[in-house]
Structure formats: structure tokens, C-alpha cells
Write a structure and sequence with these properties.
Two copies of one chain form a homodimer. By secondary structure, the first copy, chain A, is α/β, with parallel strands linked by helices. The first copy, chain A, has three domains: 44 residues, 434 Repressor (Amino-terminal Domain) (Orthogonal Bundle), CATH 1.10.260; 127 residues, Response regulator (Rossmann fold), CATH 3.40.50; 128 residues, Rossmann fold (3-Layer(aba) Sandwich), CATH 3.40.50. Chain A is 44% helix and 13% strand. Chain A contains twelve helices and eleven strands. Chain A has a five-stranded parallel sheet with strand order 2-1-3-4-5, sandwiched between helices. A four-stranded parallel sheet of chain A has the order 7-6-8-9, with helices on both faces. In chain A, strands 10-11 form a two-stranded antiparallel ribbon. In chain A, α5 packs across α12. The first copy, chain A, is elongated and about 90 Å long. Chain A starts with 9 loop residues before the first helix and ends in a 12-residue tail after the last strand. The mean pLDDT of chain A is 91. Chains A and B meet through α4, α5, β2, α6 and α10 of A and α4, α5, β2, α6 and α10 of B. Chain A binds a DNA duplex through α2 and α4.
Chain lengths: 338, 338
DNA sequence: AACCATGATGTTAGCGCTCACAAAGGGGCG
DNA sequence: CGCCCCTTTGTGAGCGCTAACATCATGGTT
């Protein structure tokens, strides 16, 4: 085993380059007033030694760690994961070090622990990807001392958040269905302590009212295919229903299966729409009409906001992103009146 | 805006408690030989001041950051994401600070940048969740100076890895199919520069030989539903095929759709099996027979290994985890010979 | 010719913490 | 009663770096 040689430090570089450590520091942080020759010498020494600055020392003296905490649920669903990925990428691209905490459960204790962990690390800001209200409340209540940005949560009452206009998504879906001639459109919602679930519910309801239709009471799901399947079984009992708007694609997937089981064809007898446009959506039976969201943009905007807040600028509200309806084969006009 | 008061440091606690900073340090790190009263006083002062140790300062003097780097692909697929989640959780549970880098593309440049980023952070170890060979090679070639543990990659030639026995998974699937009476079993593989894809391919091939069957040449996919759909279209042209073993559930999903399109019923005409047991697998049409893997165990073991390597212990090979066949409704005996 | 702005570099201090060592006090034992 | 050892606490140095200031040429300006 090669005896661990001490990693080179700034002083080593300085010695090799024949300059002071401060000059090395200047080159590393490319400050002004360095002669080209000196810079060259220093760069060369750095290269030769394989030197890299010690982040801890730098953070210590600067009083800034450059670390951004990301709190997310441990779910492996397409939406949250996609947002998390893009948040992390955008953070890294902006020169931050993203550090994630993925919570298996959204208990108060778990959240407090997560925040504690992040504070210990010295994060400069926190991005929350839990659209779950209570979670948000707990983190806010912790007085983290650093800016908290919410991605895709309840963005109404607080300006430091970014997300997609779920209300508009639901409206677009409902209007599409109404436009095809549907009148009995059922909504299978997500859990209502999620802001996104509520926004989709409200968008649907509003669009129904606007179309002069009476929205039947929605069925509450939990984002899972299983809940979609159960909802579908209920809908099988209701022959008047000709269209179902599922709060996400997983629910729609379960729905498709239940409808298949009870012999209702899609889209012949019933139209089905989801939200998210998961990669599998185009390959379901039948290919699913759904709503595409630009998750990458959410991530980028979240980090933009973080940068602004870290710099001490006031948080202007970020406009919501506009989702896009993707029409495939799971929607069609309702069957002729019987 | 409350004027930013300097965060309390150890000296502040010491002053308030009437002891030296060193005594505070001892309490914080709960060292031996501290009288109960002193500990009490210090703890009280810490509480009152809301003190928390500065991680950078600590890392600087200790020469250890406690940070573990996780390199993963930016994919949002169930398997990799699940492993990543559990690795992160296990790392946090072990007192480390996990930091992930998710690569949108597996180019050399991107990987080098990722490693560079992690080294800058001062990681003590790296966990790679890319089963992709080349990625692994690039990271290994970087001489990171810290242990690299591979989760779910090519584990054969190197001891510092943990994973599930994909070869056994493929065998179990194939034997299940053979046991049902199938003789023309096609494999739709993952990309063959992925170790897992190769292991599944080999397991299938071996099981076919062992059963005295001639394995037809496999169709190569890329893990996506789309590739599964395309493969399915090919299989539609081959009436002799009565069973398909897909390298993952997404591929199986696309396959199901293609077979549906061309009028081959599942499992009546063709049996289909996937791998991963994604949450949706039970709600496909029909519910998918697949292989369940204990991803949480992979994560835990990876961190166990990391701890051992960081402590300087030799890396004993970790035995592969055994996957579990989950039989649902997409497999049945082949149709009677015509 | 005296002056000072400017660029290039060096010197010093100190960020907040842990490590190594020193020092003080108390009890057991011959 | 003196010695030694153990417990408890304190002191000083220094981890690797950046910020602030000091220094020293240089060259244009009056």
C-alpha cells in the first residue's frame, strides 16, 4: 500500500513556484493584478503537484460553504425525482454543492432531523421538493436561518417558490374532455394535503363549472397505481361516467387496468387522462393522453431563486410554468347516447 | 430584517459556561473524563446559545470531511433511483454526509467533472451506481485517491462492489418459463455495455442450455419502454415465440403493448416476464410476472463496505443478494401445439 | 525633479476547531 | 507522610486558507 503522502497544500505550490502562498491564492481565485508569467509558473506548479484547494479551509475563512440542501421525499416517482435531478444539476452548474436528504417518511421528527443535518453541514439555502403541506410547515417553523425555496409545492401564499401551474394543467385536461363532448368527467385526485393535488382538483372543478357542468364528487387517490386501480373499480360501477381525469399517470395506469378488467374499453367507452407524461405513458394500452411539465425548468428556476436569495436580493414571485397537453389515444368522444 | 448576529462559536459557549473552549469541545465530542456537573453546564450553555459546531473548521483540523460522493446516472428509472435513495439513507444513518452527482450523460468529460467536483468537496469515498462499464472504467482511471464502491455494476472482477445476483435472476425467470413448458423463449436484453444486462443475458443463455434448449439470438434494448415496444413488434413477426424475458419491467411494458397491438394475447399466446418489480408492475395488463430485488439491502451493504474501506480494512468480497421471482398473470403454459 | 497613482507581490492575522501537552487536585498505598 | 497515578481541566499551536494591509518598483504627471 503506497504510504499516504500528505496532499499538497498552497504552501507547497508557493514553494515550487517560488512565490508567496498569497500569490497562489490569487491565481487560484483568479484575482486581478497577477503578471502572466507568475500566473503561468503557479499554474504549472499546481499542475505538477496535483494541488486542489481545501474546501473546508476555504469555507472556514470565507464563512460560506457553497452547500445547498435539498429535502425531498424518498419516493421514486417520476415527477419528484425529475425535479430533484434538475435541481441538483442546476445547483452544481451554478457552482454550489447540492446535498440531498430523502425522507422515507414525512414525520415531524424525520424533517427536524433532516433540517438539523443540513444546518450542521452549513447549507446556505434549502430547496424543498415536498409538495406536502405539513412538511413545508415544519421546515418553515424550524427557523433554519437560511432561505428556503419550495419547488412544486404550495406556492400561493409564499413568494419563494417555483412550479408548474397545476390549476392550468387541470383546466386544459378538462377542457379537452369537454371539447370532445364529455359531460360526466370524474376526477381521481392525489392526496389532498398535497398542494399540487388540490390545485388539480380545483382546476378541474372550475373548468367543469365554466362549462356549465356539475362536477361529481372526486375520488381521492394517493398517487399510486394501486389507488388508481381501486378508483377504477368504483368507476366500473358507474355507467354514466365517460371520462376520467387522473391526477397523475400512475393513477391513470391503474385506472386503465381496472377499466379493462370490467370490460369498459378506453377510449371507446371511457376516456382517461393523466398528468406528468412519464416515459411509459406512450406505451400503455392505449397510449395515454397526459400533461407534460417542464421539470428541468422548475429545477433551473429554483436555483435561480436560491442564488438571488443567497445574494440578499428580495424574492420576487416567479411566474408559474405553463404545462402542455399531450393528446394520445386514451381520449375520444363519448359513446353515443343510449 | 433581523441584523445577522454572528453564529455562536465554541468560545461563546465556553464563556457562558465558565469553562475553557477545550472543555466544550470535549463535551461536544463526548470525550471521557468530564465531570457530570461540567457537562451539564456546557450542555446548558449550548442549548441557550443554539450553538452548533462548525463542520468546516472541524473537517479542516481533523482532515476528514465525512462526505461520501455518490455518482449516478440522471435516469429516473426505478432501479437506480431506489438504490441511490437507500445508499443516501444508509450513508446518513452511518453519520456520513452523502452528496450525489447525477450525470445527464455518461461521457468521459462529464464523469471527470463529477469526480473533480467530488474531490474538491473532499469526499472520503465514492459510491458509483452506474452499472455502465465505461463509466466505471473512467472513474477508476481517475485515481481518486479514495475508495470507490460499486453498487449494482460489474462486480465480478473487483471486490469492492455490492449487488444482486442478476445471473440468478435470469435463471429463475428462464426456469419458470421452461417449467411452464415454453421452448421458444426470447430475451430482450438491456444495453450490453451494462454489466447487469450482460449478467441477465448470460443467465438466460445458461438456463436455456441447461434445459437442452437452443437460445435464439436475443434482441438488444436500452431499458426503455420504447425499445420494448420495438422488440415486441419484431416478435409479432415470429409466431413460434411463446415467451419473452424482458431485461426490465419498462421493456416488458412496451412489449405488452406491442403484443396487444398485433393481437397476440398475454399470457394466452405469449408469456412475458420483466425484472425489477416496479410499483406499476402489478397493475399492467396483464399483471406482470417479474423479479423483485432488495434495493434497500444493496444500499446498506454499499455503505457497510464504504465504512470498512474508509477504516482501512481490506475489502472482502460481499456475497451477491438473491432476487425473488414474483409470479403474476403474464405467464402461463404455452398454447397447444398447432 | 519631486510626486503619486498603479500594478505586482509579500506579510500578518485569524476563521473555529481539535490535538498534544501541561497543570492542578485528590486518593490509595507503603 | 510522601509518592505516584489518575481524573479533570486548561493552554498553546496550528490545520489551510483568504482578507487586509504593507511594500516596492514603475511610470506618467505637474
Amino acid at each position: 500500500m503506497s504510504q499516504t503522502v500528505r496532499a499538497p497544500v498552497m504552501a507547497d505550490v508557493a514553494r515550487l513556484a517560488g512565490v508567496s502562498h498569497q500569490t497562489v491564492s490569487r491565481v487560484v481565485n483568479d484575482a486581478a493584478h497577477i503578471s502572466p508569467e507568475t500566473r503561468e509558473k503557479v499554474l504549472d506548479a499546481i499542475e505538477r503537484l496535483g494541488y486542489r484547494p481545501n474546501t473546508s479551509a476555504r469555507a472556514l475563512v470565507r464563512g460560506r460553504t457553497g452547500i445547498i440542501g435539498v429535502i425531498a421525499t424518498a419516493s421514486v416517482e417520476f415527477g419528484p425525482v425529475s425535479i430533484q435531478r434538475t435541481v441538483e444539476q442546476a445547483a452544481a452548474a451554478a457552482g454550489f454543492f447540492p446535498t440531498s436528504v430523502n425522507l422515507p417518511e414525512l414525520s415531524t421528527a424525520a424533517l427536524e432531523q433532516a433540517v438539523d443535518h443540513l444546518r450542521t453541514l452549513g447549507v446556505e439555502a434549502v430547496v424543498m421538493i415536498a409538495g406536502h403541506d405539513e412538511a413545508l410547515g415544519i421546515v418553515r417553523a424550524q427557523r433554519t436561518g437560511v432561505p428556503v425555496v419550495v419547488a412544486q409545492g404550495d406556492l400561493g401564499r409564499d413568494s419563494s417558490g417555483v412550479g408548474v401551474d397545476q390549476w392550468a394543467a387541470a383546466r386544459a385536461v378538462t377542457e379537452h374532455l369537454v371539447g370532445l363532448g364529455h359531460r360526466e368527467i370524474v376526477h381521481v385526485s392525489g392526496p389532498l394535503d398535497w398542494a399540487e393535488a388540490r390545485a388539480r382538483l380545483e382546476g378541474w372543478r372550475q373548468a367543469m363549472f365554466d362549462a356549465g357542468l356539475r362536477p361529481a364528487s372526486p375520488i381521492t387517490g394517493d398517487w399510486s397505481s394501486e389507488s388508481g386501480f381501486r378508483a377504477g373499480l368504483q368507476i366500473c360501477q358507474r355507467p354514466e361516467v365517460t371520462a376520467v381525469f387522473a391526477a397523475n399517470d400512475q393513477i391513470a395506469l391503474g385506472l386503465l387496468r381496472a377499466l379493462y378488467e370490467c370490460g369498459r374499453t378506453v377510449p371507446g367507452d371511457v376516456s382517461v387522462v393523466g398528468v406528468d407524461d412519464i416515459p411509459e405513458a406512450a406505451y400503455l394500452i392505449p397510449p395515454l393522453t397526459t400533461v407534460r411539465q417542464d421539470f428541468a425548468a422548475v429545477g433551473r428556476r429554483a436555483i435561480d431563486l436560491v442564488q438571488r436569495l443567497v445574494a440578499g436580493e428580495p424574492a420576487e414571485p416567479v411566474p408559474l410554468l405553463v404545462p402542455e397537453l399531450v393528446v394520445r389515444s386514451s381520449t375520444a368522444p363519448p359513446p353515443p347516447l343510449r
